[in-house]
Amino acid sequence: MIETDEQKALRAAVSDLGARYGYLDYVLPRARRGEPLTELWREAGRLGFLGVNLPTEYGGGGAGIYELALVQEELAAHGAGLLMVVVSPAICGTIIAGYGTEQQKQTWLPGIADGSKIMAFGITEPDAGSNSHAITTTARRDGEDWLLRGQKVFISGVDQADAVLIVARTEDHATGKLKPALFIVPTDAPGFQATAMAMDIVEPDTQFTLFLDDVRLPADALVGSEDAALMQLFAGLNPERILGAAMAVGMGRYALGAGARYATERTVWKDPIGAHQGVAHPLAQAKIEVELAKAMTQKAAAHYDAGDHMGAAEAANMAKYAAAEASIFALDRAIQTHGGGGLSAEYGLASMLAAARIARIAPVSREMILNFVAMHSLGLPKSY
Ligand SMILES: Cc1cc2nc3c(=O)[nH]c(=O)nc-3n(C[C@H](O)[C@H](O)[C@H](O)COP(=O)(O)OP(=O)(O)OC[C@H]3O[C@@H](n4cnc5c(N)ncnc54)[C@H](O)[C@@H]3O)c2cc1C
């Protein structure tokens, strides 16, 4: 993938920002305290990095998901990836820019673009999980208003967010069946309750359980059309996977940098440990796998930005799978290269491994990606 001079310049500028914050001095202490990376978020927003994919008429950079993925990768390569970039500009910004009303665009996009507003995204439910067709959060009409009732789990960054884009279901008047619909739910709405979940990962962002107890919403809380929600939802899910992949690729790069540096510096026999092929080859293998995952992430973003949503879906799933596996492998090898130091608090590699492990489960698990590829790419029968 040959990048334009503008894309190269964007990479360099984001990399400078990531280096100024950095993993060991800034991100890791925050992550250990469970505090979000607010200063980095704000500065990235001010510099125009967070809204690079959003339309210029609403304060964005007018570029694509390719550029947003590049931003995420470069930050993550310094250990400073921003989970809420996957959610706020990539999912919510994309859906609102593509399908929101003029009023919703004006209300939300400039703030999402400069980082002054954050929108979380809630689809996962305790009894639905990977089977998002089984969600039961329901919106029913009450006069002009909507009343939203249900429960969500694992919703990231609700404490930082002004609103959550909630995937619910409404009744189809013709068939009586429930169909999906998207609602912008302010986090201070009466009946909206968010409870922090106790997670066993070292990560700056917190996950929440949401209880929606007849949350009353005005008619214009519905995003776009009640009948086109599935299409709207899919429009946001490919960017989510691409951005998740980019974050994992960045973490893989961080791990390789740390591993190669240590292998060059550490000597316990006569040569640095990197001279032993038992140390060098696994790092070289991880490098190849991270680069392959990066190439697939770039392919997915290029297809998405060109409007090829089917091509993007296959590549985005493959990229997310490959990037998760490559980053986990790279971190594991970086830890091994550091010996006992790999598990010490000093290097923070074990903490990053647990955070990288997220990408194997969220936003879509590796098994569900294998199901997708088996069915859609290989034409095998559906197994569930
Ligand atoms: C750190 C973190 C942040 C998250 N942030 C968000 C967020 O902001 N918003 C949001 O909506 N959600 C979020 N999620 C939720 C995430 O998307 C789900 O955890 C994920 O989709 C898996 O759902 P589940 O946990 O219910 O697992 P389950 O669906 O219960 O699956 C459990 C296991 O069974 C496997 N499995 C299930 N069905 C099949 C099948 N048919 N074939 C083969 N294997 C199968 C899965 O792959 C998995 O390994 C987050 C999760 C985490 C961990």
Structure commentary:
By secondary structure, the chain is an alpha+beta fold. The protein has 3 domains: 5-118, Acyl-CoA dehydrogenase/oxidase, N-terminal domain (Butyryl-Coa Dehydrogenase, subunit A, domain 1, Orthogonal Bundle); 121-225, Butyryl-CoA Dehydrogenase, subunit A, domain 2, CATH 2.40.110.10; 230-377, Butyryl-CoA Dehydrogenase, subunit A, domain 3, CATH 1.20.140.10. It is 51% helix and 14% strand. The chain is built from 11 helices and 7 strands. It has helices at 5-21, 23-33, 38-46, 65-76, 83-99, 102-114, 229-265, 277-305, 309-337, 349-356, 366-377, and strands at 119-122, 138-142, 145-156, 163-171, 178-186, 192-196, 207-217. The strands form 2 sheets. The chain has a 4-stranded antiparallel beta sheet with strand order 2-3-7-6, covered by helices on one side. Strand 4 and strand 5 form a beta hairpin. Helix 7 (229-265) packs antiparallel against helix 8 and helix 9 (309-337) crosses helix 11. The protein is globular. The model has no long low-confidence stretch (mean pLDDT 96). Bound molecules: flavin-adenine dinucleotide (FAD). Flavin-adenine dinucleotide is lined by residues 87, 121-124, 129-130, 154-156, 207, 358, 361-365, 367-368, 371, 384.
Q: What is the CATH superfamily of the largest domain?
A: Butyryl-CoA Dehydrogenase, subunit A, domain 3
Associated small molecules: flavin-adenine dinucleotide
User: Quick one: how many beta strands?
Assistant: 7
Low-confidence stretches: none
Mean pLDDT: 96
Radius of gyration: 21 Å
CATH topology of the largest domain: Butyryl-CoA Dehydrogenase, subunit A, domain 3
Strand adjacency order, main sheet:
2-3-7-6
Per CATH, the architecture of the largest domain is Up-down Bundle
Task: Tell me the β content.
Answer: 5-15%
The CATH class of the largest domain is identified as: Mainly Alpha
